[in-house]
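Readers outside the structure-tokenisation community will struggle with the description of the input data as it stands. What matters is that the chain and its backbone geometry are given together, residue for residue. For illustration, here is how one protein appears when written out as sequence plus structure tokens:

…
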Amino acid sequence: MSIKGLKVGEVSLEKYNPMWKEEFLKEKENLEKIMGKIALSIEHVGSTAIEGLSAKPIIDIAVGVEKLSDFEKVRHKFLNHAQYSIKNPSSPGEVLVRKGPEENRTHFIHVMEINSERYIDTLKFRDYIINNKEALFQYEKLKQELAKKYPSEREKYTSSKNYFITDILNKK
């Protein structure tokens, strides 16, 4: 069984689903084949990686590479698979590979330099929420409120979580 996914721009949260971990492991195998040694680390990140946290049914994966320019060596491999697309332009310090059509996006693959602040912060935030039940509860509440407020405005939903994320990252 594969995950449900979500239409581009929509915000819909689901209760934690143990299948998300299985989906990550399947996609990790795909990425290892496609990227080979360029991928120094492949991590399940985002809310689907946090047991007990509601999430959009999209698997977020952080791939650590030595240099972002290394992605160019495998770009064509992603473009040869119809299920993948590369966001152009991606955010600074990241190449975003999307899996699934616009009507049913299932994975976001965030390729970042492994020693970058962005990559390190992504893992740091995930680990903090996993290890801090009060923060998990607060984040869950915030996500539920924002999902109700922005059901069809994913960018506003995402940007409205930034202050909480920044606050957590400043604690460590």
Notes: The first strand starts at residue 41 and ends at 45. The CA atoms of residues 11 and 81 lie 26 Å apart. Residues 19-35 form the longest helix (17 residues).
